[in-house]
Amino acid sequence: MVTAGFDVAIVGLGPTGAVLxxxxxxxxxxxxxxxRDPAPYSQPRACHLDAxxxxxxxxxxxxxxxxxxxxxxxxxxxxxxxGGRRLFTFEGFEREPLLGWHEDYVFIQPELETALRRRVAExxxxxxxxxxxPPLDALRAEARFVVGCDGxxxxxxxxxxxxxxxxxxxxxxxxxxxxxxxxxxxxLPPIIQQVCDPRRLATFVPGHAAHRRxxxxxxxxxxxxxxxxxxxxxxxxxxxxxxxxxxxxxxxLVADRWREGDVFVAGDAAHMMPxxxxxGLCSGMRDAENLGWKLVEVLGGGDPALLETYQAERKPHTxxxxxxxxxxxxxxxxxxxxxxxxxTPSAPDPTRWSRLPGLPLGEFPLGHQVPxxxxxxxxxxxxxxxxxxxxxxxxxxRPVVVEPRATYGHRAVLVRPDRTIAALAD
Length: 426
Ligand SMILES: Cc1cc2nc3c(=O)[nH]c(=O)nc-3n(C[C@H](O)[C@H](O)[C@H](O)COP(=O)(O)OP(=O)(O)OC[C@H]3O[C@@H](n4cnc5c(N)ncnc54)[C@H](O)[C@@H]3O)c2cc1C
Hints:
Layout: E1 6-11, H1 15-26, E2 31-34, E3 48-50, H2 51-62, H3 66-69, E4 71-72, E5 76-79, E6 86-89, E7 104-106, H4 109-120, E8 126-129, H5 136-142, E9 143-148, H6 155-159, E10 164-180, E11 192-195, E12 202-206, E13 211-217, H7 226-231, E14 240-255, E15 259-260, E16 263-265, E17 271-272, H8 280-299, H9 308-337, E18 384-387, E19 400-402, E20 412-415, E21 421-425
Parallel strand pairs: 1-2, 1-9, 2-8, 5-11, 9-16, 18-19
Antiparallel strand pairs: 3-7, 4-7, 5-6, 10-13, 10-14, 11-12, 12-13, 14-17, 15-16, 18-20, 20-21
């Protein structure tokens, strides 16, 4: 393939494309990004992200901005009616912030995207073209690799002939976003609630700053007045400004292939999930980070086979996260039908930063994030060993950082650029 100056062409500067452009920009990879919308999509969509993603964003230049962009979330509970009695919670998993960040945060997606776009604009080797992307053939002529980060209706995915598999969720929901006035202060729950009310399933999220989010299950064809639904929560126009009330179909879809030759898909272009675990954007950023460092290594002369591990690692992980999200949604309906039909709470596990699985690299802690006590990331190079003692000699000559609190009891763990544990030494 003849290339005209770029190593990577990215279509889409949403959260996924912006993280990928940042990873490539930091490595000086010649990158072109096509984005048709000069302003980030203005409506709040994602409002939750997790510790791994906060850590990722901090590592990629947003550390100073995160305190103003994020609010620590108090977690999630299932209740029997709006603002009602707790039936179930995942709080058995609450623990010290193992990755250096709390397990859950709320945020406002357009604010985060604005910060990410500012970051991408810093890189000399990253060219942003504010226009519709050209057809795939033209992109492939322009760059050695093409990555479709172009969202759910991805033209790149379709042009590459990649289809979706349906993992079995398809329901209409109304998403309602409100900006609370300073006064009067309504008595809303301080924690994310999954409302298992047989009359109508709902989700409530006490968001960042004045943002409050509700999601209401709809009957097919139903078109209720949002203020009537908010009235059940004691909320009226005196309490805030309606930012939007939009119907969505929540899906559970995963791309059959994440690569076709030198073309990759990432983010919503590769998967969609119902938002009950708040993991769509998080999964897209994980894709971008995973593919990003691998492209950097291969473009730097590394073994091209490394790129095969992108789908091998990210697809099964995302499928697991989609299943967890679908299960979190199905639990609402189950508890609405029978409030005693409770999920079995897993035992608290202080070694796990989250309920999420690791990448499929082997037995725990392989495939999991290395813990981050005391800003450990600041001391790590892209690949390095983290050892329990200073007598450890790296078998591969890579740098060694001594931090016994980050080895899960092993003599040393090998950490990849994405902070995933890739090997153990005992
Ligand atoms: C109601 C709702 C709640 C959600 N809650 C959460 C949550 O709490 N936590 C979470 O992690 N996720 C959540 N999500 C999911 C999250 O919003 C998405 O997963 C995320 O926005 C996907 O990012 P992306 O960059 O992959 O795609 P997008 O955000 O869709 O970005 C794609 C970009 O590509 C551009 N583009 C597309 N086609 C072209 C083209 N041909 N040429 C040029 N540019 C193009 C678009 O303009 C856009 O900027 C939620 C989603 C919804 C709808």
